[in-house]
Amino acid sequence: MNSGSLTTYVILTIQIGFSFAAFVNLYSDMMREQNSCTCASFVSANNKIKKKKKKKKALGASERMFQLLDRQTAIPPDKSYMAKQMRLLKSSKKNTAYNEEYMSQILSSSDTEVDVEKEIKGSVEFENICFRYPSRPERVVLENLSWSAKPGTICALVGPSGGGKSTIVGLCLRLYDPDSGVYIRLFYVFFTSFIIVCLFVCLFAGKKKGIVRIDGKDLKEYDLRKLHAQIGSVSQEPVLFARTIYENITYGLRHEVSIEQVIAAAKTANAHEFIMSFPDRYDTLVVKRAYLCHTDLFLLTFLFVCLFGERGIRLSGGQKQRVAIARAILINPKILLLDEATSALDSESEYLVQQALDRVMVGRTVIVIAHRLSTVRQANQVLVVDQGQIIEEGTHESLIEANGAYAKLVSRQLLG
Ligand SMILES: Nc1ncnc2c1ncn2[C@@H]1O[C@H](COP(=O)(O)OP(=O)(O)OP(=O)(O)O)[C@@H](O)[C@H]1O
């Protein structure tokens, strides 16, 4: 054995030792009792745990996971789901009067569900929408917002960061319900008395519920699962799962698709070429490398990857977007919600993504958070959103002519 091999051997032994020590610490961190008994250390807590055997214990993150699974959604995905939840509640110990009342309310409110097995046409309308995020009720994000998009048209949302563009897109999907909008009703009452004419203006301020409509019907009347099957969405950073590329493209589809259809969609999305360059092609596993963020596991996993090789491929931002576009093409949605990528992509990737987006936008209602002038130019309607309000509305040409906020955005090239 030469000195080089010996040094490598010693360093690797130390690294493996550290990795195992870190792993043991991690394991003891993960084990903790649900009640007051927090495991100060594995050994010292052992006796207490034995005494409190009957008390529930949770395994780290799984406790949070079950909390999430148990959560009742304020926005029911469909009636059958809520009926199932109701049955579960009745059979569980958690059946309180509140829970039962809550479920019955939701069940009765969704009596008028619209059958979206029929294709929607794709018109979108916002009427008097006010909105605050439940986690920040003090901050008004959208204020009395009203606009509409006809089927098959492109509506571009532009404006400064934090203006509320993504919130508008989220409301189209009914990720949240809007608050009540405030509107002002004016009644002009004229009185004439003798020679003097008196004018009384009475101002009544009332509240009108903000409504998001699709095809003229309140979003709350739709079965969300069926509606979402007809709305495509491509975000700036699409979420892919640690599954094969094929499974990621066909994720969430309600109908069967052949491999030929998947390939055709990938070709339209400019994804086929890079997929075919991988050894496993459409069966390539997408990896997320989440372990790299965890310092305790880093060395151990790194060593594992060095010894046995990494299964799967980590996709770049542009590649992920093209997979998401292929997914949207297969859904063949009537409404497409897009968040254009910004400067995070290199110019080649940006070009390929843009080309794919241009193809997928044809013949659908598109609501796009636009960052590029080329997208805004082809939009039928441009909304400039700032501080939760639409401050300008029109086509690219008319807004440039108006020389207002939009013209400034363009001149400062803030769309890019
Ligand atoms: N989940 C959330 N909870 C609380 N506040 C939020 C949440 N998401 C966004 N906000 C706030 O709502 C406001 C509007 O955010 P939104 O993301 O809609 O703006 P945006 O115009 O899309 O911005 P950007 O162009 O930077 O994405 C911001 O002040 C933001 O801090």
Automatic annotation (TrEMBL):
The chain crosses the membrane at residues 6-27, 182-205. PROSITE patterns: ABC_TRANSPORTER_1, ABC_TRANSPORTER_2. Pfam families: ABC_tran (PF00005). GO terms for cellular component: mitochondrial inner membrane. It comes from Reticulomyxa filosa. InterPro entries: AAA+_ATPase (IPR003593), ABC_transporter-like_ATP-bd (IPR003439), ABC_transporter-like_CS (IPR017871), P-loop_NTPase (IPR027417), Type_1_exporter (IPR039421). This is ABC transporter domain-containing protein. SUPFAM superfamilies: P-loop containing nucleoside triphosphate hydrolases. One of its GO terms (molecular function) is ABC-type oligopeptide transporter activity.
